[in-house]
Amino acid sequence: MTQFSPGAGCGCKISPAQLRQILQESLPGSSKKDQEGKDHSTREQRAKGTGLEKGTGDQRAAMVDRSNGAIEFPQLLVGYESCDDAAVYDIGGGKAVISTTDFFTPIVDDPYDFGRIAATNAISDIYAMGGTPLMAISILGWPLEKLPAAVAGKVIEGARAICSQAGIPLAGGHSISISEPVFGLAVTGIIDKELVRRNNSVQKGDLLFLTKPLGIGLISTVIKRGIALPEHMETALRQMTRLNIEGPRLALLPGVHALTDVTGFGLLGHCLEMVEGSGFTARIRVEDVPLIPGIDLYVKENCIPGGTYRNYDSYGHRLAFSTADNTVTVGIPEGGTLQDSTLPDVAQKAVTAGVPEGPTLPDPVKLLLCDPQTSGGLLIAAHPDSRVVLEKEFGAVCIGEVQ
Hints:
By secondary structure, the chain is of the alpha+beta class. It is 34% helix and 21% strand.
């Protein structure tokens, strides 16, 4: 099935830079729309055509009209502005609903396993918010002229098996005829509102932990090329079908300040989302990052997913490498240079510590830490006092800190 994949699993995601441009263009008040002229109509005139003018008083109170004509929902606790793992909506009574969707092209050739991996990856977004999944519906695009319906049935069977393992029903879905196979889930979850763990609520001094080793992008690439070692295929399958079920328990720990799962943007890309806009940087100790044993073989053979390069091209300018202590600083300000006095002290040290070419990452570091993961582990930012419980009870590995 991987012969039909332009990219494997989450490695087929749109790059972070391109996604940012898409979202910026979609926002009300974008530069293009501003150039076309601003709407200076009254509040009532702007509401026409939205259904707001016919709504009840409660509905009107729930929808706040912005000056640029967009409508804001105060109950929406987490939207796409922070590039978080899922949307969160306050439903009252101290509860919130979590909603997410995720789908991709085949990452393995076995259809049943493809369904299992896709389902595990989609459900992970609920866990990454600290929530508990309630139900899922499937998203299927299938080229029936190339692959029979029975194969698609195996994909859904695999997804149903994972949903059952997570304790939720696969309750329906939608399918279309398409030129390449794609599959995933839209998942709904629930959480106590005060337990929501965003991806960007880090605090200075937090330690960073990772719950699964990196290397899935490399292995999925060599699977597609037909040269993966059996032990790596088994390891990858086992990892990609292991639910991040510890998410809700992590949310109960008062020292856990932020959560996200590491997927298509790689460890450094998702770490950047954690510190984006916080005024902090993160320092990743390269030697402490867990890797699937033996994947350096594929780096030497140059079996690199295209998503790795897209990731680095998108955010490499926000990274700095120090040869002095083998660390990567994540979150260099836009436009930061070696001479930029506005850089945080830790970032300034990182880009000047024996790196004559500046913030450029060495290839081995870049190709591993920007590797796109599918159904990767949870990246946790937590108070240092939480270290013992995170390491002993959750098997998390400390890989750095927020500075």
